[in-house]
Design goal:
This protein has 193 residues and is of the alpha/beta class. The chain is 54% helix and 15% strand. It folds into two domains: 2-122, Response regulator (Rossmann fold, 3-Layer(aba) Sandwich); 126-189, Arc Repressor Mutant, subunit A. It is built from nine helices and seven strands; from the N terminus they run E-E-H-E-H-E-E-H-E-H-E-H-H-H-H-H. Strand 6, helix 4 and strand 7 (101-104) form a beta-alpha-beta unit. Helix 1 crosses helix 5 (109-122). The chain is globular.
Amino acid sequence: MTRSSQVWVVDDDASIRWVLERALIDAGLSVRQFGNADEAMGVVDHELPNVVMTDIRMPGRSGLEFLEILGDRFPEIPVIVMTAYTDLDSAVSAYRGGAFEYLPKPFDLDEATALVKRALARRTDWQTALRRSVEERLAVGQANLLGDLGPEFERILLRATLAFTGGRKQEAARWIGWGRNTLTRKLKELEID
C-alpha cells in the first residue's frame, strides 16, 4: 500500500468537489475527488490520503458510515465532515464517529483550506515518528540504533495494530504474528494500556 500526500474530497456535488479542489491546489496541496464514499472505499486498499473531506448525505454509503470505516481501519487519518444540513444531531454524530472537524456548508474557502492544513499538521504517521526518532539519535551520535529503536518500533506497531482491531488483543496478536501471551507480555513491557 502506498501513502500519498493527497487530500480526498468525497461529495456527490461535483461543483463542491471542483471548488475545493481548486482552492486546495492553489494552497499547494494534492487532491483526489470521489463522487461518493463507495468510490473512495474502492481504492483504500492500495492508496491512502493524508486528510479526507467528506459530505454526510450522499447516495449509497453516507459520510458518517465512511467516517466509521476509515476510523476503524485508519484512525490516524483526519476526516473533516461537511454538510449543508447543520443540525446538532449531525455534528454530534460526526464527532462521536471520530471526525477531526465539522464544516457546515456553505463554507469560506480560506477557512476550509486552513482547516485542511491544520489537519495535515496534526497528523503524524508511524513512518514520520520513526524517522524523527532515528534522526534525533543520529544527530547525537548514538550507536546501536536497531537495538534502541526495537522497543519504540514495537510500541508504534502495537498501538497501530490495536487501533486497527478496535482494541481486540487476540485479533491484534494474529495480525502481528504473535501468540496472545507474547502480546500480553509486550504490552506490559512497553507499558501500553
